[in-house]
Give the backbone structure.
Amino acid sequence: MSAQAPSRTDLLLAIADDELVLGWRNSEWTGIAPFLEEDVAFSSIAQGEIGHARAFYELAATELGTTADALAFDRRPDEYRCAPLVELRFVPDWARTIARHYLYETADAIRIAGVKESEWDELAGLAAKVEREEVYHLMHAQMWADRLAASTDGRRHFDEAVTELWPYALGLLEGEERERLAETVGREPVDAVERGAHTDELVPLWDEMTMVRRSAPGAEW
Amino acid sequence: MAAPRTEEEFREHVQAGGLVETADWMPDDYRAKLTKFIEMHGNSELMGVLPEREWILRAPTLQRKLALTAKVQDEVGHAQLIYRVVEDLGKPRERCLEDLVSGKTKFHNVFHYPTKTWGDVGVIAWLIDAAAIISQKALLKCSYAPYARIMKKICWEESFHILHGRDVVLAMVTGTDEQRGLVQEAIDRWWGPLMTFHGNQTPFDEDPMIEWRIKSQANEDARQRFLDGYVPQIWELGLTVPDPELGKDEETGVWQYSEPDWDELRHVVTGNGPRTAERLELRRISREETAWVRDVVLAEAA
Amino acid sequence: MIYEVFRQEREGQPLQHGGSLEAPNAAFAEAYAREFYGRRNESTTLWIIPRDAVAEVEEPYVADVFDRDYRRVDGYSIKVKLKEARERAGALAD
């Protein structure tokens, strides 16, 4: 399988899986975020990501003759194409959560800008739609990055987390998009934690997210 | 009309339907009872997110995942709206949360119980939210106007939750026998807590909350409204209610039911429910772990 | 910091107080106002105002010490005068 060039649905599933798994991770904050106003805001971001995942899966599903839900839930963990960055479980660590949010949204903006130029019209159109919402995610991430950077303590928490996650963030993108990311966040490129191998955190997440669905295979919920 | 200046005038004012705003003079007893009542409501919204939150990660389809996350998000939003009202009455949010996790203040009985299956998710959103909306709709007439005003938004959002809950339940009762079984089991488990949800049968004119028109609906009236609205809906789906005495007296229109377990209610709301300690501990830990964020970010004039 | 949020439900309607929220600064307040009062598209306009910037006018009326009936409807007895004017007009026409 690795010898083959990735198909267009493989690329699409990589984006969809990133959005799905990150959305799942971010939704772990719903109900326990640092303060109530942020709880509501961050939950919308998680919902936004799941919504985008669904849209990407729907497009892939028309190619593959399946459904968005089947793609989201009914594959084995090793079949997911998400990057390790999105798999990591961070609750209750807000610093790493925001660092990942900032890195992911910055990288995603670069990626989506590229996908908008796709020759696959449906995908390009979908990317343009997704971008309209991702703008708010990026604004939110930037607002947090700025606010944390405005105090010594906040900056320390944030910088440490960004440094730790930086190799993972590079793994979201390919080729020259990595340089664009490095430029945007003002860091030197390093060896990326590549997409392909999964972290140990994916299987427990998969177990939980598919638990109800697996309990009655084929049932409607 | 002159603003009330004495406790007597104030009582007359609110009993005649008069409203109170934050900056108005109010008797200490009114402020104390009001604050306690609203704070417990805020606590309940906040603690109410925890039983369902556990299932956000397990939702079986993308649509359910989104709907459940949005529901829990709404509850957090309600907690924010309600605690803001409490804060303006003089008790800061941080103190409300401290008192909550230390067990000094209470939260609603239903949020002390475990959620065991996806069936619970449907039954909670459908029936617990229905019971809650009955109480909350009556609060639209609360004498304390800032509280009554936010109740409009809260009731509007709760109506989506009932839809979501009913939809989850309908999908399951039309599904496999196992799925249907999960719904029935959930109703069986939640029925007891639901019957005590609206509180004991304190007569209308002996309820201190009614004297100040903080509440204007007697507990038993709320329970009757709930039974009247929802028992037929449960039966209609071929589901049963675990109370052989339950039935409507056709002549009086009053629902009869077995005596609810008031001892259990007292036991649970005083901090001894099956999940009380665990949920308060989760609140305490997550507050502790994120305290630095509030310090850094919410610090005034930073 | 506490921000007061005002919202307009539909175009053409007045802005009304929606509620208040706590936010570190105006950027956060804006994001939170959008979440709290716009996540179901329920507002067409939102204003956020730091609570400190709102001053309450203590006596929101002008004390009616002397008669100011010329500012009110009951200060004008149109009916009686109109009747008289019509009668006179009628008499003139005769």
Summary: Residues 70 and 76 of chain C are 7 Å apart (CA to CA).
